[in-house]
Design goal:
This protein is an alpha+beta fold. It has five domains: about 1-275, no CATH class; about 285-345, no CATH class; about 350-475, 2-Layer Sandwich (Beta-Lactamase); about 480-545; about 550-670, Heat Shock Protein 90, CATH 3.30.565.10. About 65% of the residues lie in helices and about 10% in strands. It is built from 18 helices and ten strands. The strands form two sheets. Strands 3-2-1-5-4 form a five-stranded antiparallel sheet, covered by helices on one side. The protein has a five-stranded mixed sheet with strand order 6-7-8-10-9. α1 runs parallel beside α3, α2 packs antiparallel against α3 (about 70-100) and α7 runs antiparallel to α8. It is elongated and about 165 Å long. The two termini are about 70 Å apart. About 35% of the residues are buried.
Length: about 675
């Protein structure tokens, strides 16, 4: 398959090389004719115009044909350059063969005939105007116009080839073709020439029609060609005006015509490079980079070989080996510097984007930046404020952003979607403006450079989402436990406790209804009633441990009961604002456990409790003047308090220096 693709590429390069050889040969023969003072030869200032008119379409055509061999634009340009080189080179060859050195060169009359085929100046630019950039006509309605233009130029060439009289400056040279048109047919040249002239304006109309009907990047591509195509008929007008006013057109008019040829090719070149048509910019970029690297390595190899050979004086094999090793080591740094220089000069958006991404990656590597900021960096590097990065979550096969978490499927809002990969795995999606698809090299380069930072950010986002899920799960467990406590409290209060109360009442009534002769049972019944009362008190204590009933009246009421029941003086100051039940319960049990721990381990003389709502969070402070030294890992129940507070999304801090008491601070979000 690679060999099949290589054939058209080699053919395009061969045609371009043939065009270069022909035009260079023409310059050489022109100098030969000038040495013999042949009239019309020796205009050295025309040489740059000659070379530009041939090299511009040849180079641009080769680049397109190599990258897109199926597109006819490249072949039109290459063949146009070859035809121009043949016509422009034939005239000086005919001068040298017929006038400078008669008889020394063969084929002088044939060269004179080829130099008369001046319609090639219009053939290939007209074809480009009709079919650029996709190789097809703008629409079906342009087909008759294209056929008219092709027929006019072909007929004009046939008339010139079979004419008895060749074009200036070889009017006196006999046409080498035996078959010729009758002299009566000569009158057709004028009308056919006018038809060709009209076709030039039709080609301009076709290009401008495509320009008006296009938009976006294609409109920019067509803009240059639409104006360049207009230069061809304007050049012809200049040619005719010059001949009408000043007589025979001079070399100045020829220079103008040659400049218009180069302008059309350069317009195509601008479209394929500046506006990324055919993705040629990448090929040109790499060509410039590796040409610069090759030249630099060659100079380095030569310099090292020369210097080492002079200084060391050893055999050439060792010197060459040393130079080769040094050139190999220098390849990587040279390529990076050359790439940066080419990007800075010819592709500034890519250069600026890569520099921005590399600076961000360095900041992440040095700990100066957060990887989650890679989305904003990509938007700035690509110059697309609408760019958005969504990280792939392999476990759930969903996507998430760096701020709000899981977003599910990517939104469908008209933005283009580009997959980001790292080591062959999809790690993210980039949503961006569709216009960036016209810059695949920019998009690909920036995403490749940022892939490591994107992978780090993806892992961090995934861990953060998993931690949030764990926190939510723990909060649900705590909430379920709280609801279970409330159910147990209700069951104890409304079930077993009420049954025991009823049993006590029944026993008391039975005692009061005993006959005199059964009074001996009274002490036993009193004992039974007392046991029932003790059982009720035990159930109330258990129910209060599950969830104190006073919490139904608010945190302040529950803390008041806690202060009254404590074995040491407890001062408290609490908000009377009602908070979510789970927040009040968590705060109460934290205060209860803190007081219990203080009494059990710290031997305080007093304890103070403060509870207030500050900035949407309940702030609970428990302070004692005991011996201190409490730690979360010290087995004093503080680990359970920490878990209880964190399950509600809060924080717990413990300050307990030895001998200075203990201060416990809890902050629980309450949404107030």
């Amino acid at each position: 398959m690679g060999g099949v693709r290589m054939v058209p590429r080699l053919a395009a390069c061969g045609l371009a090389l043939a065009a270069l050889i022909l035009i260079v040969g023409g310059v050489v023969f022109d100098r030969i004719a000038a040495a013999k003072d042949v009239p019309g030869s020796g205009a050295w200032w025309l040489y740059p115009f000659l070379l530009a008119a041939v090299l511009a379409p040849a180079v641009v055509g080769v680049l397109i044909a190599v990258q897109r061999p199926a597109n006819p634009i490249g072949w039109i340009l290459v063949l146009g350059a070859l035809s121009l080189a043949a016509v422009l080179g034939a005239q000086p060859y005919a001068w040298a063969a017929l006038e400078a050195h008669p008889g020394s060169l063969s084929g002088g009359s044939w060269a004179a005939l080829v130099s008369s085929l001046w319609p090639v100046f219009f053939a290939w630019p007209l074809a480009i105007a009709f079919v650029f950039p996709d190789g097809r006509l703008p629409s079906r309605r342009w087909r008759p116009y294209a056929l008219f233009a092709a027929f006019s130029i072909t007929l004009l060439v046939v008339l010139l080839v079979l004419s008895a009289k060749l074009e200036s400056p070889f009017e006196d040279v006999a046409n080498p073709i035996p078959a010729r048109w009758p002299d009566a047919v000569g009158f057709l040249r004028g009308p056919v020439w006018l038809a060709v002239f009209a076709s030039l304006f039709v080609g301009v109309a076709a290009a401008r029609s495509r320009y008006r009907s296009s938009d976006g990047i294609e409109r920019l591509q067509m803009l240059w060609l639409a104006w360049a195509a207009l230069l061809i008929p304007l050049g012809v007008v200049c040619f005719l005006a010059w001949g009408f006013v000043l007589g025979k057109p001079g070399d100045t008019v020829l220079a103008v015509m040659l400049a218009t040829q180069a302008a059309v090719a350069l317009a195509v070149g601008v479209a394929v490079t500046r506006y990324r048509l055919y993705d040629i910019d990448r090929l040109i970029n790499r060509t410039l980079v590796y040409s610069a690297v090759t030249a630099s390595l060659g100079l380095l190899f030569a310099a090292v070989s020369l210097l080492a050979g002079v200084v060391v004086g050893h055999g050439s094999t060792w010197v060459a080996a040393f130079a080769a090793v040094l050139a190999t080591c220098a390849f990587g740094p040279l390529r990076r510097r050359a790439q940066a220089a080419v990007d800075w000069r010819f592709d500034r958006p890519r250069y600026d984007g890569l520099q921005r991404v590399r600076a961000f990656v360095d900041d992440v590597r040095e700990g100066r930046g957060e990887p989650e900021g890679v989305g904003a960096v990509l938007a700035a590097a690509l110059r697309d404020p609408s760019a958005e990065l969504l990280f792939r979550l392999p476990a759930s096969e969903a996507y998430a952003d760096a701020v709000s978490g899981v977003v599910g499927d990517p939104p469908v809002d008209g933005r283009a979607v580009t997959q980001v990969e790292h080591r062959g795995r999809e790690i993210a999606l980039l949503l961006h403006a569709p216009a960036l698809l016209d810059r695949p090299d920019l998009l690909r380069s920036v995403l490749t450079e940022a892939s490591l930072a994107i992978e780090i950010a993806r892992l961090r986002v995934e861990v953060r989402i998993q931690l949030a899920e764990v926190e939510e799960s723990r909060s649900r467990v705590v909430q379920a436990g709280y609801e279970e406590r409330r159910r147990l409290e209700r069951d104890l209060h409304d079930g077993a406790q009420q049954r025991l109360v009823t049993l006590g009442i029944v026993l008391r009534r039975l005692q009061l209804s005993l006959p005199r002769e059964a009074q001996i049972l009274k002490p036993a019944l009193n004992s039974a009633v007392d046991e029932v009362g003790h059982a009720i008190e035990d159930l109330r204590t258990i129910a209060a441990g599950v969830r104190p009933p006073r919490l139904d009246e608010g945190l302040a009421a529950a803390l008041a009961d806690l202060a009254r029941a404590a074995p040491v003086p407890v001062e408290f100051e609490a908000t009377h604002e009602r908070l979510p039940p789970q927040v009040e319960a968590a705060a109460y049990f934290v205060a209860c456990e803190a007081v219990t721990n203080a009494v059990k381990h710290a031997s305080p003389s007093r304890v103070r409790i403060e509870a207030e709502v500050v900035d949407g969070a309940l702030r609970l402070v428990v302070v004692d003047d005991g011996i201190g030294g409490a730690t979360v890992a010290g087995g004093t129940g503080l680990i359970g308090l920490t878990d209880r507070v964190e399950a509600q999304g809060g924080t717990l801090l413990v300050y307990s220096p030895p001998g200075a008491g203990t201060r416990l601070e809890a902050e629980i979000p309450c949404g107030s």
